[in-house]
Amino acid sequence: MKTSARNEFRGTVKAVRQGAVNADVILDLGDGLQIFANITNDAVEDLRLTPGRQAVALIKASFIVLSPDANIRVSARNQLRGTITAVMPGSVNGEVKIQLAGGRILTAIVTNDALQELGLAVGAACSALIKASHILICVDD
Amino acid sequence: MKTSARNEFRGTVKAVRQGAVNADVILDLGDGLQIFANITNDAVEDLRLTPGRQAVALIKASFIVLSPDANIRVSARNQLRGTITAVMPGSVNGEVKIQLAGGRILTAIVTNDALQELGLAVGAACSALIKASHILICVDD
Amino acid sequence: MKTSARNEFRGTVKAVRQGAVNADVILDLGDGLQIFANITNDAVEDLRLTPGRQAVALIKASFIVLSPDANIRVSARNQLRGTITAVMPGSVNGEVKIQLAGGRILTAIVTNDALQELGLAVGAACSALIKASHILICVDD
């Protein structure tokens, strides 16, 4: 199966913590990268997510907030740092590609205004902020 | 493949309109239901989305806004009307299930405060509002 | 701190209510404006969010739903009313700027179709609807 989500990061479930309706899932991608996802308890059971299980985090490019700054004190549980490898401005929105640890490429869509204002250009360091509740988890079987 | 997205609606691509960076895709679910998705042009090409192609819209439960009212004038391109079949309050958020045309069940997560304030209860009519940019499209092959 | 999020609203934490996994945070912006955010408990503790603490709400422009109508009965906990000061249509999406109380400017990205259909033009009153789960909170220290 292929999805429109521009970011698909494969990893291993490290921890699952269930609440009344929602659950926190931590996915270890390797190379020191972790993804925190907030999904429903139903999804945890349906996908049989337990530590050690292989899973993929899907992140839509338009859900990502970018910042040139590192270690921002922000509620978003995911803060991935890398180097910009491509910038493509559109009419209102623009696309940015960021290389993360292990050569992974992250694609983000932000406004052209943000691209200019923040000086997001090829070669610059950049942090991608993603709320745990914006991440989808999928499994192969 | 299974995903944590609580809503997976299968349909046929009806139209694709490409811009500079993003594209609009209309998916016909049958039973008079349509889904409007806003995805990247790259995704349109990668998934070979053209009219007539089978595809699935994935919608995370926490991206859905609910209203008891019908035909709200709102920028959200998706406004699906149905009847509430289940409500499960949690500690902060609660889950609502809504039956749409053709027996499809839509699952939404909203705050408990919203549940009480809007009187969202089993048997009530309810609209689900979803921005086109919050929808993921996937294909089987 | 600089981010690509087009909306950064500074305020004071008024209330925090923690559930099992997620928490509700109310940020008082002044001028009668409040922001309701739904974030993880971990984030509440990590950012030391308690009543009286200064914090900033980050809202990505593409997470905002617009409506010309006031006081819509909707589950979205944030409903900010203002006057449109600018509209810039793109190829698929368009950008709208809305002046809120206290001169704050809110930027939203919606589809061009929505702009036309709802008659969103400079000078018109407009409501911005934002789900609490779409808001990021950050602190300076």
What features would you describe in this structure?
Three copies of one chain form a homotrimer. By secondary structure, chain A is mostly beta strands. Helix content of chain A is 9%, strand content 54%. The first copy, chain A, has helices at 41-46, 112-118; strands at 2-3, 7-18, 22-30, 33-40, 54-59, 65-67, 78-89, 93-99, 105-111, 125-130, 136-139. In chain A, strands 4-3-2-5-11 form a five-stranded antiparallel beta sheet. In chain A, strand 8 (93-99) and strand 9 (105-111) form a beta hairpin. The mean pLDDT of chain A is 94. Chains in contact: A-B, A-C, B-C. Chain A binds chain C through residues 17-20, 22-24, 36, 38, 62-63, 65-69, 72-77, 90-93, 108-111, 113-115, 117-118, 120, 129, 131-133, and chain C through 1-6, 19-22, 37-40, 42-44, 46-47, 58, 60-62, 88, 90-91, 93-95, 107, 109, 133-134, 136-141.
- Uncertain segments of chain A are none
Biggest pleated-sheet summary of chain A: 5 strands, antiparallel
Order of strands in the sheet with the most strands of chain A? 4-3-2-5-11
Relative helix content of chain A = under 10%
Number of strands of chain A: 11
Ends of chain A: how far apart? Answer: 11 Å
Largest interface by residue count?
A: A-C, 40 and 39 residues
Helix and strand composition category of chain A: mainly beta
Q: Count helical runs of chain A.
A: 2
CA-based gyration radius of chain A: 15 Å
Strand content of chain A: over 45%
The assembly state of the depicted protein chains is homotrimer
What is the ordering of alpha helices and beta strands of chain A?
A: EEEEHEEEEEHEE
Global morphology of chain A: elongated
Mean pLDDT of chain A: 94
